[in-house]
Amino acid sequence: MANTPRRSGLCLLAGFTLAVLLQCTIQSAAAHAIDTRAGSERTSERREVHRRTSEANASVTSEAPVESKRALQSTRTLGSPSAKGPYYVDFRARTAASWGHAFIWFGKTSERKVEVAGLTPAGDTFSYVLGYLTWVPSETGASYGDLDPQYLTASYRVYLNEPDAKRVFAYIKKLQASSPVWNAEISNCTAFIGDVANFMGLKVPHRWQRPEEYVNSLKAMNGGRQIVHLSSE
Length: 233
Fold this sequence. Notes:
The protein has helices at 3-58, 63-78, 125-130, 162-177, 189-199, 211-221; strands spanning 87-94, 101-108, 115-118, 120-121, 136-139, 152-160, 181-182. It is of the alpha+beta class. The N and C termini lie far apart (103 Å).
C-alpha cells in the first residue's frame, strides 16, 4: 500500500507530460498549416501574374493593330514613308490600392506579344509603407493588374522605327537591371517611365503626380505626338 501514492504521482506526471507534448504538437501543426497556406497564397499570386503575362503575350488586345493602323494613316498623310513605326512604347497608368501605378508596354505592332516594365516595391503592403521612409527592394517586370484593361486609367502610345526601337528597348532593359530599389518619393514608378520618356527625347512632367495625371501630362506636354525619332548617337 505504501507504493500506491508513488505510483499515482508517476501516473499524474506521465499524464501531464503527454498533455504538454500533444499541445506542442498541435500548435506546431497549426503554425505549419498557416505558413503553408500563406506560402501557397503568395505562390498562387505569382502564378496568376505569370498566367496573365502569358495570356497577354498570346493575345493582348486588338488595340495595337488599331492604333498601328491609325499611326500608319497619319504617316501617309505626312507623306514620309521613312516615318513608319512598326514598334511602339506605351506609357500607361492603372488603378491600385493606393495612388495607382505607372508602367510601360513595349513591343512590335505586328505581334501580339507585349513586354511590361515598371518599378514597384517587392513584397507585400509592409514593403510599400516602408518605402515611404527608406529604400526597399524593387521589382521591374509586370505586376498584378498591368495586363488587365479594366484597370487602365491613362495611356500614351508612341511609335518608333526599328533602329530607334532597338535603342529604346535596350535602354528599358538596362533601366530594369539598374533599378534594384524603390522609394515613394525618389525612385518611384513615374520616375521610372519618365527616364524612358526622357531618353526618347520627350518632354517630361515632374514625378510628384498621380500616375494617371502623369501619363496625361506627358501626352499633353508632347502635343499627343505619335511618332518619335531619336537623335543621332
